[in-house]
Specification:
The protein has about 260 residues and is of the alpha/beta class. The chain has one domain: Divalent-metal-dependent TIM barrel enzymes (TIM Barrel, Alpha-Beta Barrel), CATH 3.20.20.150. The protein has 9 helices and 8 strands. Strands 1-2-3-4-5-6-7-8 form an 8-stranded parallel barrel. The chain starts with a strand and ends in a 12-residue tail after the last helix.
Length: about 260
């Protein structure tokens, strides 16, 4: 497993152009960026190259009013989603980023069935258009993101089972599982066949994890290691203080990192 700094949250107090060097100086070799659409891809390519970093994950675009949490499942916005996805895919191609979190969007309960079908159709299209790109789905907890299409790994597993495309997998976030009040061990075990990316943060403040308090997280990393997970672990949290000081929480994970 490889730690990855989420530049959007972990270094969000810094100007964008300073976040890359800060991650390098703190020992990271991999980074995530939530929405890297404010600059041209080549600007990011240069920043990554100058600091010896590789980009491992971005999100599909969002729109503040019409699609604040994405639009992959919004039945009236199929064409806009496909435009958004092409934009994300072009960014990944330029930066050698291997994975995209496909954001489903906010859906009213009475529209859930139609939204599910729309999401499947869009995922199948995206997988066919860009077979070399890993497409990720993540359950966003209902406290932080009420109305998101799925809030639990179980709901994501159902979508993944229905879509059946090898390039579509799960983004398993310990924080969202804990915030939703679910058991980490049970959700992780059920999700192992689909997990392609992992993220972590402390519950409920979304700051540094507390491995003594956040039940099941340390054992979860041990289980991931035993299962042969060799992907990235995104540090997607807002630090309580100085980032480097806060990184001490992860000392217990060093046996699982390569």
């Amino acid at each position: 497993m490889t730690p990855a700094a989420n530049l959007t949250l972990l270094y969000g107090r810094l100007p964008l152009e300073d976040r890359f060097s800060a991650a390098r100086e703190d020992g990271f070799s991999a980074v995530e960026i939530q929405f890297p659409y404010d600059r041209e891809p080549q600007w990011y390519v240069q920043q990554l190259s100058d600091n010896g970093l590789r980009l491992v994950l971005i999100n599909t675009p969002k729109e503040s009013d019409a699609a604040p949490w994405g639009r992959a499942a919004l039945t009236s916005q199929r064409d806009k989603f496909r435009r958004d996805f092409e934009r994300a895919a072009e960014f990944c191609d330029a930066t050698d980023c291997p994975a995209v979190h496909v954001m489903a969007g906010l859906v009213a309960p009475e529209q859930a069935a139609a939204a599910h079908d729309t999401l499947l159709s869009n995922l199948e299209w995206a997988a066919q258009q860009h077979p070399g790109l890993t497409l990720l789905l993540e359950g966003l907890n209902s406290h932080d993101v009420p109305g998101y299409l799925y809030s639990t790994p179980g709901a994501v597993r159902q979508v993944l089972s229905d879509v059946g495309a090898e390039s579509v997998g799960m983004q398993f976030d310990f924080y969202h599982v804990l915030r939703e009040g679910l058991g980490v061990q049970a959700e992780l075990e059920a999700s192992l066949p689909w997990i392609r990316h992992v993220q972590v943060a402390g519950n409920p403040e979304r700051q540094e994890p507390d491995l003594a308090r956040d039940a099941g997280v340390l054992a979860g990393f041990q289980r991931l290691s035993e299962a042969g997970y060799r992907g990235c672990v995104g540090y997607e949290y807002r630090p309580a203080g100085r980032v480097r000081d806060g990184l001490r929480w992860a000392d217990a994970l060093f046996p699982y990192f390569s």
